[in-house]
Predict the 3D structure of the following.
Amino acid sequence: MVADKLRPFGTTIFSEMTRLAIEHQAINLSQGFPDFEGPSSIVDAAVEALRAGHNQYARSMGAPTLVEAIAQQRRELYDLRYDPMTEVVVFSGATEGLMSSMLGLLNPGDEVVLFEPVYDSYPACIAMAGAVPRYVTLRFPDFELDLDALEAAFSDRTKLIVLNTPHNPTGKVFTPKELQAIAELCERHDVIALTDEVYEHLFYDDAAHLPLAAIGDMQKRTLSLSSTGKTYSFTGWKVGWGTGPVELVRAAQAAHQFVTFATATPLQHAVATAIRENGPQFFAQLRAEYTERRDHMLETIRSMGLEPTVPRGSYFVLADFSNVFEGDDIAFAKSLVTEYGVAAIPPSGFYPANPDAGRRLIRFAFCKKMETLAAAREALRAFDASRPTPN
Ligand code: PMP
Ligand code: GLN
C-alpha cells in the first residue's frame, strides 16, 4: 500500500536498531538520544506552562515568546538579525523543519545538492517533494570536501543545497574554507541553502560552529534550522525552528501550516525559558561533558581494534572495522547487538550514491551516561577481533 515514492525508504535504521536493542536487551548506542535527563529547570518550565493554561493551538509560526527568544539568541550568538514575527518559524522538530522547508521550496524536477553520508530524512523529503538529489561524497577517514566534486554537482537546475554542520554521522565540522566554497557556488548558481544545525552547540577541541548564514551575503539565501533535542537533551519534545529571510520563511510556512499547523504550545513556552536561561556558560558545560563522553567512547572503540575518526562535532563516532571483521556493516551491527549486547548503526544506507563507502563503517552514539558508556566498554571487552566472521 505504501506509495511508490516512499517504498524505497522502508523503516528507518534508527527505529530498526532501537527495536533490536530492546529485543536483545542491549546497550543502545544506535539511535541518537540521551539516556539522561535535561535540566530540571526546563522540565519545571514545561509543567508551569501546562498549569498556566498554555494549552490551545499556538500561533502557527510559533508562540511570540519563543520566536522572540530565538531571534535574540541568534543575534547574541552569531550577530545574525531576524525579525521574530516574519523571519522565524517554529517547527515540530528539525525533522518537520526539513520536510516543510523542502515541500515549501522545491518544485518537481528541481535538483538538490547533498553530502553523503546523508541524514536519512533528507532523501525521503526530496522524494516527497518530487525533486532530484545530487550527492557529493565525503569519505572516511577525514571526510574532507572535494571542491571539484562539489562544483560538478551544481547545474542550472539546482535549487537548493542542504548542509548539515556539525555533521551526523561523521562528526565533521565544515571548515570556514569549505563554507566559503559552498557560499560562492550558491551565489554563482543562485541557489538557496538549507542548513541543519541541530548540533550547533556540540563541537570539540579547536572546532567552532560557524553558521553558513554568517558568511558574506549568505543570510539572504539561507534558511537555517535548529532544534532543542540535542542542546537541552529533550529529543522527545520535538521543538525546532527555522530562521531566514522573509521569502524563505514564508515558503516553509506555506507547507508548515498544513503539515502540523503549530507545535505543542506548552513546550514552546518551556523552550523559550530554556533559551533565555541557558546561554554560553551552559553550552560550554555541555561541550565539556560531551568531550569526556567522546574520549571514553574513542578509547573503547580503539580497544576493540577499530579505527575511529575523531569527531570534532555532534555526538557520533564513525569507525572502520575492516581490521577486525570480514562482513559488511549490517552484519557487523547484527553481531554487536546479538553477541555482545551493544547496538550501533550500520551507515551504508546513509550513502545512497556509493553504499560501498559506508560498508566497512559503524556509528556509535555517545550521548549516554558515563555509566552506560562504561557498561558498553565492559560488554565489548569480550569482543574477539580474531574470531572468524560470516560473509
Ligand atoms: N537532523 C539531524 C542531522 C539529526 O541528527 C536529527 C536528529 N537527531 C534531526 C535533524 C532531527 O531533529 P529533531 O529531533 O529536532 O526533529
Ligand atoms: N537523529 C537521530 C540519530 O541520528 C535519530 C532520530 C530519529 O530516530 N529519527 O540517531
